[in-house]
């Protein structure tokens, strides 16, 4: 632990000691003040002290460099020492001060940076919802003044728009942030404790009939003439019974056409578990045509350097609804229709669960969750081949 008279030049250029993940440089002029430098170059000021009451060594973060200069850090360290000499713990005092000045926007940004992005697969969706629905309405509210009515100010407009699912998710996002802030000490209490989230929307039950599937399939080339990718994605959703986001984001590296398999990594599935989809002749034909059109792209359905977003497919479907000549439907209704169709063909529920990657079915209870480790790969392939043949008969009339 080097000890030296810190200077602005040294603070700006110093690095962690070779071979060490981080190094603390203690200031000779201000007892207890240290600059911690990580191997990646991150620099943070901290004050080391003996905690009042238990005589244990403790550390409180004062700020980061260069946002906090050396002079400001020395002032902050002297303030912390004064608190210790008065019998107060500077960690508690500093957290209280920070909470008093922190706004909802600052708290959300902190949550996204320190928790959501490093740990949650859905971080991008959480960020999108909060920036759209929470920050514009309650972002300037100090968290020390945050009240339940502020939460309602963010959620109620979403309910009035008829977006109950999104209202529930925004409520859950804010509740997670408040619980995280309390656990960290940024908040002393959770202002959302005891609040009930909006009534959850009813699950959709729309299943396309055989006639509707035939009509939809036959209308795709004309109705979506400008987007061959959307046509194929819709077809694959019906053929494979997978989610539109998983199909739209399909990558070459996930495909093993020799073994006729599509391997979805956990990072791309809703439940975070890897999933193998058996590919029927019809699925192979659609994918092969898409690969030929994709050129050298790593994505089967490329768009602007990445994969075609599921939201773009959903918007395309909404805009073209009236031209299909059938009752209103959504991308997720295709998956439901395929699963229902397989059930009608006699596919057992446990196999349907494996096809859909629903672990609430495949790992339900002690028997399936602990003892049965058979993945029904043969039955899954038979189910999808059977459904694909039936689908081809429907389309051909």
Describe the structure.
Strand 1 (3-4), helix 1 and strand 2 form a beta-alpha-beta unit. The model has no long low-confidence stretch (mean pLDDT 90). The chain is elongated. The protein has a 5-stranded mixed sheet with strand order 1-2-3-4-5, with helices on one face. Strands 6-7-8 form a 3-stranded antiparallel sheet. With 397 residues, the chain is α+β, with helices and mostly antiparallel strands. The chain folds into 3 domains: 3-90, 2-Layer Sandwich (Double Stranded RNA Binding Domain), CATH 3.30.160; 104-184; 210-396, hpI Integrase, Chain A, CATH 1.10.443.10. Helix 9 (210-223) crosses helix 19 and helix 10 (228-240) packs antiparallel against helix 12 (281-294). The chain is built from 19 helices and 10 strands. The chain has helices at residues 8-13, 70-85, 90-101, 104-119, 123-133, 135-138, 148-160, 164-184, 210-223, 228-240, 244-248, 281-294, 310-319, 321-324, 331-344, 349-356, 359-362, 365-371, 377-396, and strands at 3-4, 22-27, 33-38, 43-50, 57-65, 255-256, 261-264, 275-278, 302-303, 306-307.
Provide the descriptors you would attach to this structure in a database record:
397 residues, alpha+beta, Double Stranded RNA Binding Domain, hpI Integrase, Chain A, 3 domains, 5-stranded mixed sheet, 3-stranded antiparallel sheet, 19 helices, elongated
């Amino acid at each position: 632990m080097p000890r030296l008279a810190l200077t602005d030049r040294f603070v700006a250029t110093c690095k962690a000691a070779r071979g060490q993940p981080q190094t603390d440089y203690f200031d000779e002029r201000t007892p207890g003040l240290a600059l911690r430098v990580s191997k990646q170059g991150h620099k943070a000021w901290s004050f080391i002290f003996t905690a009042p009451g238990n005589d244990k060594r403790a550390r409180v973060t004062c700020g980061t460099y260069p946002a906090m200069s050396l002079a400001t850090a020395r002032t902050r360290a002297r303030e912390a020492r004064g608190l210790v000499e008065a019998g107060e713990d500077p960690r508690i005092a500093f957290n209280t001060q920070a909470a008093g000045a922190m706004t909802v926007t600052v708290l959300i940004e902190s949550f996204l940076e320190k928790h959501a992005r490093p740990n949650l697969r859905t971080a991008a969706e959480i960020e999108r919802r909060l920036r759209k629905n929470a920050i514009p309405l309650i972002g300037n509210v100090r968290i020390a003044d945050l009240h339940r009515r502020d939460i309602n100010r963010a959620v109620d407009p979403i309910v009035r728009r008829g977006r109950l699912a999104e209202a529930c998710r925004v409520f859950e996002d804010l509740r997670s942030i408040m619980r995280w802030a309390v656990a960290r000490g940024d908040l002393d209490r959770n202002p959302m404790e005891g609040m009930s989230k909006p009534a959850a929307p009813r699950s959709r039950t729309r299943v396309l009939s055989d006639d509707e599937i035939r009509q939809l399939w036959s209308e795709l080339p004309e109705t979506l003439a400008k987007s061959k990718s959307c046509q194929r994605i819709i077809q694959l959703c019906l053929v494979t019974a997978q989610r539109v986001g998983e199909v739209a984001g399909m990558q070459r590296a996930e495909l093993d056409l020799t073994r006729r398999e599509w391997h979805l990594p956990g990072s791309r599935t809703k439940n975070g578990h890897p999933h193998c989809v058996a590919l029927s002749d019809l699925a192979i034909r659609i994918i092969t045509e898409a690969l030929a059109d994709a050129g050298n792209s790593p994505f089967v359905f490329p768009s602007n350097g990445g994969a075609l977003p599921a939201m773009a497919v959903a918007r395309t479907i909404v805009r073209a609804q009236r031209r299909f000549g059938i009752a209103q439907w959504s991308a997720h209704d295709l998956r439901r229709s395929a699963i229902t169709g397989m059930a009608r063909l006699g596919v057992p529920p446990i196999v349907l669960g494996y096809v859909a990657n629903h672990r609430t079915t495949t790992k339900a209870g002690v028997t399936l969750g602990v003892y049965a480790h058979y993945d029904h790969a043969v039955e899954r392939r038979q189910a999808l081949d059977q459904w694909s043949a039936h689908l081809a008969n429907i389309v051909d009339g």
